[in-house]
Specification:
By secondary structure, this protein is an alpha+beta fold. The chain contains eleven helices and twelve strands. Bound molecules: zinc ion.
């Protein structure tokens, strides 16, 4: 009987090991050995015929055999199920999932285009914090306490601190840079800025600016004009003309608003459609588009950062990136940039 049990055990384990890896053949083996009329079950029945003195030992051997067969079947079943599962999930014959190439956001593309022009002119890119102190956002830039842009309604102050705010322009970076660096230098500062404007087709509470600052000995207004003219022609085309209008900014003196000739009507202010003459919709018939503000750095700003205004001069300019992108791509609504609609974004 012992010999028989041992033999059955070996046969069963061999058969399980060499069985095809599928659930049906394993179930057939389970029935063959462990079923109600199975071989192992038959051994238990024979146990009753043995002398009672032999029953505990033989009974133990049959139980061990039953456990061995059960474990071997369970293991094989587990491996089979795992392999089948893997087959279900990895079908190497399936065509691949194609992911189209990504691209930069139109605002980032515009920032890159703007920066590329200035980098080619020897400017260096500098960035700074978006959470600023009142000092760098206002005082260092000669913006007095009573200036309207310091009003709480014109700036996002952080609730935890009346002295910290989201920068309302990228100019604080200029002050930070000047404190740590000595002229001469030419820097360009791209970045996000914040103003509590109600959102509409031409306003957003968050937008992007690129500012430039050049400081050195004997930097002149004509240098500013030359640099901006190169910029306008590179970005909007060779035939682009430029004009300066007197303006005011606390941190520059003198200051100017800079216009380019309208990119839609080439400065004429009108379109001829057949024999009819229409007023240009982009420039409103004026022939000019305002693109940036600029000027010579106010000597007070130099004093604030520890430069001697008698020894250095410089110019600064700043532009809204969304404004440039809207003009360049003919976009009607600033909100399109920030709604993350891929149908819009894919066009760039
Ligand atoms: Zn026009």
């Amino acid at each position: 009987m012992k010999e028989q049990i041992k033999q059955i055990g070996q046969e069963a384990l061999n058969e399980i090991a060499s069985s095809g890896a599928n659930k049906d053949s394993l179930e057939a083996l389970r029935v063959k050995y462990l079923g109600r009329k199975g071989i192992v079950t038959g051994l238990f029945k024979k146990l009753a015929e043995l002398p009672s003195a032999d029953r505990p030992e033989i009974g133990g051997l049959i139980n061990a055999l039953k456990n061995d067969v059960t474990r071997a079947l369970d293991e094989k079943l587990f491996l089979t199920a795992r392999d089948e599962d893997a087959k279900d999930h990895i079908d190497v014959t399936l065509p691949g999932v194609s992911r189209g190439p990504g691209r930069a956001h139109p605002i980032m593309q515009t920032i890159d285009q703007i920066c590329d022009v200035f980098i080619s002119l020897g400017f260096k890119i500098v960035e700074g914090p978006e959470i600023e102190t009142e000092h760098y956002n206002f005082e260092a830039l000669n913006i007095p306490l009573e200036h309207p842009s310091r009003d709480a309604f014109d700036t996002f102050y952080l609730r935890s601190s009346q002295k910290h705010l989201l920068r309302s322009h990228t100019s604080p970076v200029q002050a930070r840079f000047m404190e740590k660096n000595k002229p001469p230098f030419s820097i360009i500062v791209p970045g996000r800025v914040y103003r509590p404007d109600a959102t509409d087709a031409s306003h957003s509470f968050m937008f992007h600016q690129v500012e430039g600052l050049v400081v050195g000995a004997a930097i002149k207004f004509s240098d500013l004009k030359g640099v901006l003219e190169i910029f306008a022609k590179r970005l909007f085309g060779r035939s682009t003309r430029m004009r300066f209008r007197p303006s005011f900014f606390p941190f520059t003196e003198p200051s100017a608003e800079v216009d380019i000739s309208c990119i839609l009507c080439a400065g004429s202010g009108k379109h001829n459609i057949g024999s009819e003459i229409h007023r240009c919709s982009l420039c409103g018939g004026k022939g000019w588009l305002e693109i940036l503000g600029a000027g010579m750095v106010n000597p007070k700003v130099f004093k604030n950062v520890g430069y001697d205004p008698g020894k250095v001069t410089g110019f600064a300019f700043g532009m809204g990136v969304e404004r440039i992108a809207i003009l360049k791509y003919g976009i009607s609504d600033i909100r399109l940039f920030f709604e993350n609609d891929v149908r819009f974004l894919r066009q760039f």
